[in-house]
Amino acid sequence: MSSEEFERLNEIYRSLYEELKLIPDRAVSSHGEERKRLVRDFDERQGEAEEVLQGMEDELRGAPSSFRNAMSTKLRMYRRDLGKLQRDMKNSAPGLGSSSQPVRGSHHGIYSTENEQSTHLQSQRALLLQGTESLTNASQSIERSQRLAAETDQIGTDIIEELGEQREQLDRTRNRLVNTGENLSRSRKILRAMSRRVMTNKLLLGVIILMELAILGAVVYLKFFRR
């Protein structure tokens, strides 16, 4: 079946049914207080079985459509079998409670003498089933929360690792920029030194040219104009 809860309730019902089907035969051969006790036990187990079947019906309403036919068939069979056991039990103890001369119109038969006790026990059983279901739901919710927390922790760890890698990359980039800045500074110094040398060379070349012109002028003056 598609529902784990439906399967769990199915197992509970089968266990109750196995107990119930033995009681009618035992009631036939018993008398007095023993028979009353058997009727009381049957009434209690029958109430528990009804609660379980009601829980199975609740699960049926929320089950996928592909599973509902099989689940519904099983429920109808269980209710039919339970009704048959109830008729067998009535036939097994037909005169139970007749000596007490019940008032006309009141409920009597095999369930009349212990009705209040069985109702109380059924209520307690229903509360127990509800409590068990609530605990199951709470456990599932805690498990989901734990899985979510583990996934969140893993995501956080991955993010921290990624940030660490990015920090290392930034540090390497910064170091490369620092080295590049130092290289640029050295290059500027070299360029400035080369510029000064070029200017010096130009000045020297200008001085040399001026000196040569002066010498040439002196030679021309001495040769052609001085007598």
TrEMBL record:
What's the main place this protein lives?
Answer: membrane
Concerning Gene3D superfamilies, the annotation shows: 1.20.5.110, t-snare proteins
Family that this chain belongs to: Belongs to the VTI1 family.
Q: Residues annotated as region Disordered?
A: 88-110
Bilayer topology annotation: Single-pass type IV membrane protein
Q: Which GO terms describe its biological process?
A: Golgi to vacuole transport; intra-Golgi vesicle-mediated transport; intracellular protein transport; macroautophagy; regulation of protein localization to plasma membrane; retrograde transport, endosome to Golgi; vesicle fusion with Golgi apparatus
Which residue range or ranges hold the T-SNARE coiled-coil homology domain? 132-194
Q: Which organism is it from?
A: Echeneis naucrates
The record's Gene Ontology cellular component field reads: cytosol; endoplasmic reticulum membrane; ER to Golgi transport vesicle membrane; Golgi apparatus; late endosome membrane; SNARE complex
| Pfam hit, one | V-SNARE_C
- GO molecular function terms listed in the Swiss-Prot or TrEMBL record: SNAP receptor activity; SNARE binding
- Gene transcribed to yield this protein: vti1b
Annotated protein name in UniProt: t-SNARE coiled-coil homology domain-containing protein
Keywords, comma-separated and alphabetical: Coiled coil, Membrane, Protein transport, Transmembrane, Transmembrane helix, Transport
On the tree of life, the source organism's domain of life is Eukaryota
Q: Where are the transmembrane segments?
A: 203-224
Q: InterPro entries this protein is in?
A: SNARE, T_SNARE_dom, v-SNARE_N_sf, Vesicle_trsprt_v-SNARE_N
